[in-house]
């Protein structure tokens, strides 16, 4: 099965998650989109002869929530079995890390210290790291905001809201790295496989989408797209 069947009236509706700064960004002045997800979407559109129609979301959870309503044709999401009822995945194209930031006066130094009684961690609802921690943390108290940006803003504006805030490393760096009042914990909460995604109703096209991803990796396209968007520290998925 080919991917031509994804387009509608010559267009492909592409969900772009702006909550993950490592993979997609929008220029505040021009509105132009950039990042590896945008590059992959444009390449796919070129292959199937479609015009990209970018649908912008503030977080992965909102992308997933929109899947049953037929709001998008393809998306870019972390692979997670908890989403399997709504989402079909390609093979992964990149690996990213989730970690956490604390205030300078925090006694925490490593992410392994987070899973303690009475420790509160702000997360973006239904993000990959939220799902991972929900399944694996035993004592940690998860405090949920609707989007990554909302969790970062709340951590800044409400000092008593949480002891730390989690996120994709690159998104946290963009929000906190230049602020001396905050610091990063050592280590990673989880390593996250990012993939292209389809609504489960179109899951029969997942093998063809995996083939597209495989070719993009083998030809060096994913590596170049990451480097061109300033994400040379990210690893292309094997």
From TrEMBL:
Domain of life, per lineage: Bacteria
InterPro entries cross-referenced by the UniProt entry: Solute-binding_3/MltF_N
Keyword Transferase part of the UniProt annotation: no
Start and end residues of each Solute-binding protein family 3/N-terminal domain: 11-233
Keyword Transcription regulation: no
Pfam family, one: SBP_bac_3
Keywords (A to Z) from UniProt: Signal
Protein name per Swiss-Prot or TrEMBL: Amino acid ABC transporter substrate-binding protein, PAAT family
Lineage: Bacteria, Pseudomonadati, Pseudomonadota, Alphaproteobacteria, Hyphomicrobiales
């Amino acid at each position: 099965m080919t991917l031509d069947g994804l387009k509608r009236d010559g267009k492909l509706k592409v969900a772009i998650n702006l909550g993950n700064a490592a993979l997609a960004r929008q220029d505040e002045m021009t509105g132009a989109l950039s990042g590896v997800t945008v590059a992959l979407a444009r390449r796919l559109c070129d292959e199937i002869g479609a015009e990209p129609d970018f649908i912008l979301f503030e977080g992965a959870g909102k992308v997933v929530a929109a899947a049953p309503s037929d709001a998008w044709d393809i998306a870019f999401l972390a692979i997670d079995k908890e989403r399997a009822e709504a989402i079909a995945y390609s093979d992964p194209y990149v690996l990213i890390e989730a970690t956490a930031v604390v205030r300078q006066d925090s006694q925490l130094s490593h992410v392994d210290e987070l899973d303690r009684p009475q420790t509160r961690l702000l997360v973006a609802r239904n993000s990959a790291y939220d799902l991972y921690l929900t399944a694996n943390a035993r004592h940690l108290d998860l405090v949920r905001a609707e989007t990554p940006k909302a969790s970062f803003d709340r951590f800044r504006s409400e000092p008593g809201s949480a002891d730390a805030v989690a996120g994709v490393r690159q998104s946290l760096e963009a929000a906190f790295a230049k602020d001396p009042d905050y610091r990063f914990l050592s280590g990673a909460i989880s390593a996250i496989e990012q993939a292209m995604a389809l609504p489960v109703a179109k899951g029969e096209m997942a093998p063809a989408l995996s083939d597209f991803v495989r070719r993009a990796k083998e030809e060096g396209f994913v590596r170049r797209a990451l480097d061109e968007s300033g994400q040379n520290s990210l690893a292309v998925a094997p």
